[in-house]
Design goal:
11 strands, 7-stranded mixed sheet, 118 residues, 4-stranded antiparallel sheet, globular, mainly beta, single chain
Length: 118
Amino acid sequence: QVHLVESGGGLVQAGGSLRLSCTASGSILSINIMGWYRQVPGKQRELVAVISSSGSTGYADSVKGRFTVSRDRAKNTVSLSLQMNSLKPDDTAVYYCSARSSGYGDSWGQGIQVTVSS
């Protein structure tokens, strides 16, 4: 199994920056793709950014040029980060870290609130 824990959310003014972090533990050797999703009440969870084990990245059109996803490997953990710049009120959501693993499917973090005030 893969266990994910997010940190770094909070309240920021429009135009500001936040950095989200996610630490993956457990069966980290099985992790392929990691990513960030977000969800607002009443709407479906949507993809924000993904990164493969080789470092290839993909972004939702709404965040391209503003958000940067990265990942790093330590001995027993994998760290996933999301640098969010030029934040807009529309970026307000609960953000979730995810990991797709061979043999374990998709794992999710508990979610972390990001609020951007206008």
